[in-house]
Amino acid sequence: MTKGLSGAGDQRRSQLLRGVLDLCLLSLIAERPRYGFEFAEALAAGGMELVSDGSIYPLLARMERAGLVSSYRAPSPSGGAPRKYYRLTEAGRAELSAGRADWQAFAGAVGRILTGTESTGDSTP
What we know:
- The protein is about 60% helix and about 10% strand.
- By secondary structure, the chain is mainly alpha-helical.
């Protein structure tokens, strides 16, 4: 990876993602129960290829300890070791709903500021 603007952009995206990765995982689980590797695939398909397994698994464990997700083991279709799947709990559904509302408000405010459409009603410099 090269330094400079591209490296700074990757670092900024990584920092932004840290704040919302839990919501992204909850949203993916809300679609259907998933196992670990599927998260990385789905995030990459959504344009978040910066996310590594090393950041997904500890976050899933923390969310499970917090009661936002539960897990179960199911046989692998390919005949390998059983896979650990995650599903949302009621607390996880509530957290996702609240998180989506928070994200919409936050992203809207940031978007207005970054596009210069924030209106304060004061035209003094």
